[in-house]
Amino acid sequence: MNYRVFGCKKFGRLSSEQADRSLSDSEERFLERHRAVCADCESLEHTTSCALNMLRMAALEPEVAPMFEDRVIRRLKVQQVKESLNYWSPALIGAGIACIVVFATLHLVSTPAQINRAQLPTGEAKREPIQRLELDHVPVLR
Amino acid sequence: MTHVIAAEAAAQERQWVGRCRVGDESALACLIARHRNRLVRTATNLLRDRHEAEDVAQEAFLKAFREIGKLRDDRAFSGYLYRICVRLCMDRLRLKRAELVEFDTAQPHCGGNVENRVVIEKLLSQLPAELRTTLVLREMEQLSYEEVAEVMQVPIGTVRSRLHTARDRFRKLWIEAVRD
Around Cβ A44, how many Cβ atoms within 10 Å? Predict the structure, then answer.
């Protein structure tokens, strides 16, 4: 009874490890002895083996799309352009604003303050004739 | 003879990595051509989705090339690239696990029994990303304990215990699936 309680855990571990490394003679003997006395462990080992075989059989073969290299290189170039834009964009924006300010200042300084005569409205100033007051004909007030 | 070929291949790869650093496009293409199949296969087996696997493989290449300047040893490139790919797959698996897993039956598969594949995919989707990755790398990709430990950046003891747990859980899930 004790053998089974303590042995099952060890059996599980060794059973899992036997697929990955070569077991020592004593470990091999232990597995054989345990299989002979414990039907549950033997059944579990068999099930595990079946499940893992199915897993291995379900491995997919790669299907690399044509032009894979070209796609990666294109994406790499796009990424590099984006990164350089991200890196330089604050400097570019600053330089643009500085350029606008400089041009505006130069324009203001170089333009003399004058009135464009050609743009003045055309026409004459007219004076309406004023009615004269005839003093001779003023009625005498009595 | 095999050693000589392997040494030549390694020397050639070092040369390509060096040329990649200075922006040689043909060297980039050579590195991609050499590693693409392995990367796509591993990603396909981990994610069980060909389109996503190709996307992850491309992303792994981009990330590796972006960081190639920081690589101290040119001989480490292939391992570095593979590690990036596995890590990207694990990130996607963690995201996917929260969502409902859907299987596209219209997706073409090569060889093997389609029903078996469907069952295996459902069972794998129920395992946590770490266990699933360890199991797939060991059982499907046939990597050694040391290689799995290096790729996942964990001690060998952790790989051993994860593999044991993963096999155990997979067996239980398998029994349930067969019973149903």
Answer: 19
Q: Does the predicted model carry a pTM greater than 0.80?
A: no
Mean pLDDT check: name the lowest of A85-94, A115-124, B98-107: B98-107
Chain A contact for B175 (CB, 8 A cutoff) = yes
Inter-residue contact B79 to B170 (CB < 8 Å): no
Contact across the interface for B28 and A56, Cβ inside 8 Å: no
Which domain, by its residues, includes A22?
3-57
- Mean pLDDT value of segment A89-118: 85
What is the C-alpha separation between B162 and A1, in angstroms, rounded? 29
For residue A94, tell me if it sits in a domain: yes
What's the gap in Å between the CA of B55 and the closest CA on chain A? 10
User: A82 with A51, same domain?
Assistant: no
Residue A115 falls inside a structural domain: no
Total domains, chain A:
2
Are A36 and A72 in a shared domain? no
Mean pLDDT of chain A: 82
Q: Among A19, A38, A57, identify where a domain stops.
A: A57
Q: Per residue in A7-17, pLDDT tens? A: 888 888 888 88
B34 touches chain A (CB under 8 A): no
Residues A35 and A28: their CA atoms lie apart, in Å, by 11
- B101 CA to chain A: closest CA distance, Å? 18
Question: Cβ contact (<8 Å) for B138 and A20?
Answer: yes
